[in-house]
Amino acid sequence: xxxxxxxxxxxxxxxxxxxxxxxxxxxxxxxxxxxxxxxxxxxxxxxxxxxxxxxxxxxxxxxxxxxxxxxxxxxxxxxxxxxxx
Length: 85
Fold this sequence. Notes:
This protein is mostly helical and 85 residues long. The chain is 54% helix and 0% strand. It contains four helices and no strands. The chain is elongated, with a radius of gyration of 17 Å. The two termini are 26 Å apart.
């Protein structure tokens, strides 16, 4: 769910009144925080592998990406450079 409604959006998703706008913002922020917290939990072992035990356990939010099998395969050091902590 995005603020604008994404590809399935429509004007009704973004209220006109200030209280409704704030409620929508809070709703979107909570949904995104929940989504990225679940990603961090799901990939906890990988986060620990890349960032070490202490840092990997402290990461609260994460977003997963898939490396294209047809392109150059980045090394662990390349990954750390692209996604620094």
